[in-house]
Amino acid sequence: MLAIVPALDEADTIAEVVRSAAAHVDSVVVIDDGSTDGTADLAREAGASCVSHERNLGVGAAIATGLRHALDLGADAAVQVDGDGQHVASSIPVLLAALHSGADLVVGTRFEQGFEMSFVRRTALRFFSAAVSRHVGHHVSDPTSGFRAFGPKAMEKLAPIFPTAYLADTIEVLYLAAESGLIVRTVPVDMIARSGGRPYAGPTKSVVYAARMLLLTIKHFRLRPR
Predict the structure, then answer these.
(1) So where are the chain's domains?
(2) Distance, CA of 129 to CA of 148 (rounded, Å)
(3) Could you report the per-residue pLDDT of 114-173, keeping only the tens digit for each?
(4) Which fold has domain 2-221?
């Protein structure tokens, strides 16, 4: 079992993320996505292996790199854990247990545990939740969650086609999973507010990405498995 940690300038949190995740998996790999603050060195000091992108390629590209790395190592499962400290490592066994129960891709949902977000974001998320759930044949209440577990079948099928555009790495990959015949399930997990680093996108870009996700939803609606 391997933890994949995509990270961009997460020097404030990466060491604790690595140490926390390492308690629940066999090894941790940090995908340093063009950081300039020493994230990679701190990750290694904390006990992780590290694969670095020479420049920032985006979180989707970082996850794709991590999945390929997991396949090369022969890992039987991979858990995606964000480098900013939002994902509570004690929920990793919950994600892995769902894999062992027959799922190929498990999405952690934060809302059952009381996580809060703005009304506008939550409203938009409900729309995408309904669209994604219809596509995958299972209720996915938190389709933009980046706290996920991949089984061997999911790693093999998704690594070559993993979307690299921002937020496509969350919502679109669920569409692709369904179209690839993968079993998608969700479990409640604990998440907290970002405690350091900087987000991949601000409010203005988020509006652009929401529009992109709408177009992708329309595109994949036509490909929905019957």
Answers:
(1) 2-221
(2) 16
(3) 655 555 566 677 878 888 888 888 999 898 899 999 999 999 999 999 988 766 788 889
(4) Spore Coat Polysaccharide Biosynthesis Protein SpsA; Chain A (3.90.550)
